[in-house]
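Section handout 9: paired folding examples.
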Amino acid sequence: MKLSILTATYNRAKYLPKLYESIKSNLKYNIIPEWIIIDDGSTDDTKKIVQNFINDNQFEIKYQYQENAGKMKAINEAVNLATGELIIDCDSDNCFLEDSFKNIEENAKLLLENSNLYGLVFLQKDGNGKISGKEFPNKEITTMFDLYFKEDIQGEKVIVYNSKIRKMFSHELENNEKFITEARMYHKMDEKYKLLTINLPIEQGEYLEDGYSKNINNIFKNCPYGYYMYFKEILGKNMRGVKFKKRIYAIKHFILFGYLVNNKFDIKCIRDKFNKFLYTILYLPGIYKSKKFKDKNN
């Protein structure tokens, strides 16, 4: 069984050897890895380091350079290059655990033989070796939307995709922006397919000072159009069962990004009557906070 590992990287040459070694440590299992590295305009020794990996000839590695266009375009290109039955994203500051491929192998049949599933969703460990956020309450068929907005499952998670279905979707960017949350694509996939939760960790992540997680305000400021569409799409969904705090979260951010893209009061796209009420009463205080956010981050 072949697993396509997708990594978008930008000036992370010194972190890639750890990921490379973690893939090598999993070669004892019946998973054939294909590592696809899209170099998003790096100016460090990334190309040289990757060439050393290729020369080591331990497993298949595909390297492609692109002018800096952002992580999401890089991943879109990596998906096009993938030839495995399975696809997984692994950031350049992440690595696989010792038994990751074993856990993937033992559950892959459940994914590939069920045409209603687009992926298996596993846990991720943080830099301290602890599970990121919450574990899944049980093994269940669900969606990423329901996990986050209805079950309140927090923290980083890792999806192993059925390649045939994953190739039908891509990260949609707006207004020439370079980034959008992966969740926008997840929610599109959720509309037609589902996920199976697996309560096992398969990746460990480090959170770097220049990483997306630690620079979220800059991302919000630089990519408001994509996030505006993301929250607009959320509020256009059937919100029955969504936790109250998640409704507030979505509405507050819809107001923020509406302000940042110069869209005024917009209630027509909101499907749920209760959310329309919440949007109306939160709008003015939300605009006030949005102005403060914009002034602070200019």
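Moving on to protein 2 of 2.
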Amino acid sequence: MSLDESFAEIIAGTGIQVGNASVARLAGSLSARALTAADLTAFYQARIERLNPELRAVIAISGDAAGEAEASDERRANGAGRGPLDGIPVLVKDNISAAGMPATAGSPALMHAADPDAFLVTRLRAAGAVIIGKANLSEWANFRSRPSSSGLSTLGGQAVNPHGSGRSPSGSSSGSAVAVAAGLAPLAVGTETDGSIVSPSGVCGIVGIKPTLGLISRSGVVPISAAQDTAGPMARTVADAAALLTVLAGRDETDPATERAVAEACDYTAFLRPGGLDGARLGVWRDPSAKADARTAAILESAIVTLRDAGAEIVDPVQLADIDKLGEPEYAALTHEFKHDINAYLAGVGGDHPADLAGLIAFNTGNEAVVLNHFGQELFEAAEATSGDMADAGYREARESAARIARSGLDGALTADKLDAVIALTGHAAWLIDHVLGDYHSWGSSSPAAVSGYPSITVPAGSVSGLPVGLSFIGAAWSEPRLIGLAHDFELALAARSPGGPAGVAASRQR
């Protein structure tokens, strides 16, 4: 069955096709009693059982999902519904803890870890969402080996892009992207350190929001770096991603980075207004896609025409000063931070698991035939070789240098040209999966926002031979409301130009 044929499947009792199953439409059917949360959850569980053996997007199904769905139906029957996500199935990436489902990061080393709900999962449950299961990921969020194959984990196998046979889903929120793109769940939560939400979203043809650092709690999330890690929503449309972000965002007293979220978090669906591009100033950052082939480059040119026709003022090109110098200090800082942060995380997680990074390395070596059968653990070893001391002068210089380059580059462009956002192609189309040489990922635009802690949103912008390519909107810290308005209007404008555009946009337009 092709992806298009699969999307035509009807959710019983609703007339809604899977490819158009927006949060608004599903919530409307639930409210009208045309559909129960129990039946909706069972529907998506059946799709997972049928399609996941090929896609490998889901690493675990929750045994509590049916009960959560029944509780949602009972609340609604009693007039106590909790909002638009009540009864909506959500997948969470398997580096996020959920009671009864340990955050494994795809590794058998954490199979017997025990931890309560991550703070963001607590917020999902409070909103009535049904945690249907855990999404597969690049093992250890793609921070174990170099090279590696995105979407590959020991526990979950190799996740596969649904848009092309043998194509990579990119990483590390690979399963989250594949699941949403293939209609295994209407919503998913991913995490990003650098590119791990926006890159898989881009190549799988969905919307991904990498929020400002501190808008969403990291408590209960397996870390790489407290300086860059964040969770974020992944969905078929900007409207659905905004609805999920509204629930995820908020203050967590155990995560100091979220202090400002008290003032900044809001109902992001309020910014889904047509006309968001009219009068907006957008700067085109061309450097990331300088190596793009002609068909990929044409997607950027077409997007610029769409944006301009929708009323945006285009500044083309803009430069992000010294961004080409970002990679070395970022890598030096991340290896150092990973040792510190993973050791602290493991010290606080219950259950049976290695006590620290050295223990993880020993576990992998002791289970080499299973865990290291395709790739090694070079990044683990590089991190272990650092001091892991946050006061280390060399480390502090690297982190400060990386942050300075990223922020001055983005701030300089945004301020000098009075921009609402910088736009760039998110990355190139999906490459073939290769378990010998690893990923062929030659360029992308994620690093400035990731290292600065600023927000970015990727939206499907076109395709090359049926393989999606995304356009990223990158803004200043805490500019999610503006970016969502811009991205939503671009999505609508693109759908108006291309009636066969991203599925679900027509439903979004009817909000």
